[in-house]
Specification:
- This protein is α+β, with helices and mostly antiparallel strands and 462 residues long.
- Among the domains are: 84 residues, Lipocalin; 204 residues, DD-peptidase/beta-lactamase superfamily (Beta-lactamase, 3-Layer(aba) Sandwich).
- Helix content is 29%, strand content 23%.
- The chain contains 14 helices and 19 strands.
- The strands form four sheets. An eight-stranded antiparallel barrel has the order 1-2-3-4-5-6-7-8. Strands 10-9-19-18-17-16 form a six-stranded antiparallel beta sheet, sandwiched between helices.
Length: 462
């Protein structure tokens, strides 16, 4: 027995030494480097999983080491480092060379909670802080009969079992009862939304209609773009019949399906084009508009441009005046530019999780915030009048079935684990943010919220 214990300890010791050695070797590549379009990125080694990550705007992408100085990125393309006198000076990728600019940089946090990592049993729930942001707070112990599953969820996240979850918020019975942050994020950190930006573009279309800039979502779409793109390709009778509503419901009829590599309008093909809206409008038709839904990023971006054309304002200015200011939201960033200039920021909105709760609450309350109608109630009703598992006005119907009980929600979702769920039957909103970017393509698995929600949150309310 003593020999067995000795050998187990020896194996564990050797494994730890090897991991530490691998981590120290990865430190050779750390630094701030040149990147596409006169931007920069950092390469950072994680002590948590001993992986080298490319970090762009706080989003991290793993590089898989295949040999000394050679890695594969998330497209399985080689990233090869060059050295002079055994020191890394640059890397090559896609036929380009990117120089190391600096080794002095602020490194991101790679542990969920450094002080509690490996000691999650010491976690203690704290009631969210009451801020001057219009959200009431509450104690989860008062609003949830048995919150033990919720606390277990937080402990599992602290232990790293659900990596790269940055925030978890629960708003129940009109009170924020849970607010937890990880990996150095906090209540004041605006977070990338990726495609979770799209539903709020749908809301801005509704406001533009409410204010008379657009007559109706039943209007034909292309006439708004004729002056901008006089030569729209693949123009036929089907394309001319596309309405604004068709784009709001992803029932465009075009050859556009995000995750289909054979589709001419898939997201990767769109992002390689010079102008993403024109690329979308130029796509060939494959069926009549309005028949069936097909998820297409170009639809939301085109509708964002429609807001600008109809109102003669940038979408950022229109949103500030008609959505963010009325909600008291100021800590956000949005640079809407649907073309190659947005290759690293995706024209997305960055906003704090608490403000996501406010936006979702406004939708949940029929377009009202603090008694003021922000979006017409009729638009909200039409937004959520969607078929099961389908799309409304850039929102999605999402449901879970647990032990025969069905839980319905309206979902805004973005790459990396951005999830805003409105649960009407539970009088609840849940918000997740995270950095599991391209997790399905890279690891063949879903993002943590898709497991956490049915395992820990919904069973609490059965």
């Amino acid at each position: 027995m003593k020999k067995t214990i000795f050998f187990l300890l020896l194996i564990m010791s050797c494994s730890t030494k090897k991991q530490n050695s691998n981590y120290e070797n990865l430190l050779d590549y750390e630094g701030k480097y040149e990147y596409l379009g006169q931007t920069t990125l950092t390469l950072e080694a994680s002590e948590f999983d001993t992986i080298l990550y490319a970090v762009i705007d706080r989003a991290k992408y793993p590089l898989k080491q295949v040999s000394k100085d050679t890695f594969l990125n998330n497209q399985n393309a080689p990233v090869v480092f060059q050295r002079v006198e055994n020191k890394v000076i640059s890397y090559q990728a896609d036929g380009q060379t990117f120089k190391l600019l600096d080794t002095d940089f602020e490194k991101m946090e790679f542990l969920p909670r450094r002080k509690l990592f490996g000691k999650s049993k010491n976690y203690k729930y704290q009631k969210p802080q009451q801020l001057n942001d219009g959200l009431e707070v509450g104690d989860i112990n008062a609003d949830v009969d048995n919150p033990s599953l919720i606390f277990q969820m937080i402990k599992e996240t602290i232990d790293g079992n659900y990596p790269d979850v940055h925030s978890i918020l629960i708003y129940k019975n009109n009170k924020l009862v849970l607010e937890e942050y990880f990996y150095g994020y906090d209540a004041n950190t605006p977070h990338q939304l990726r495609s979770a930006t799209k539903p709020f573009i749908g809301g801005l279309i509704g406001i533009a209609i409410d204010k008379g800039f657009i007559k109706s979502e039943k209007e034909k779409l292309l006439p708004y773009f004729n002056s901008s793109y006089s030569q729209i390709s693949n123009l036929d009778n089907k394309k001319e019949e596309i309405t604004i509503e068709n784009f709001l419901m992803y029932r465009h009829g075009m050859d556009c399906e995000n995750n289909n590599p054979e589709s001419k309008g898939n997201e990767q093909s769109m992002m390689q084009s010079e102008n993403w809206v024109k690329h979308t409008l130029d796509l060939p038709m494959v069926t009549e508009p309005g028949k069936s839904s097909s998820y297409c990023t170009g639809c939301a971006l085109t509708l964002g441009s429609l807001v600008e054309i109809a109102t003669d304002k940038t979408i950022e200015d229109f949103a500030k005046e008609n959505l963010f200011d009325p909600l008291g939201i100021s800590n956000y960033d949005w640079a809407f530019e649907p073309n190659k200039a947005s290759m690293t920021n995706f024209s997305q909105l960055k906003i704090t999780p608490r403000d996501l709760i406010k936006l979702a609450k406004m939708y949940k309350d029929g377009g009202k915030w603090k008694g003021k109608q922000i979006i017409s109630e009729s638009w909200i009703k039409k937004t959520f009048d969607m078929d099961e598992g389908d799309y409304g006005y850039l929102w999605e119907h999402k449901y879970f079935v647990i032990d025969g009980q069905k839980f319905n929600s309206y979902l805004a979702s973005g790459n990396g684990g951005q999830k805003i769920n409105i649960w009407p039957e539970l009088d609840m909103i849940t918000v997740f943010t995270g950095a599991n970017y391209n997790s399905y393509q890279l690891y063949g698995k879903s993002t943590p919220p898709n497991e956490i929600i049915p395992k820990y949150i919904l069973p609490t309310f059965e």
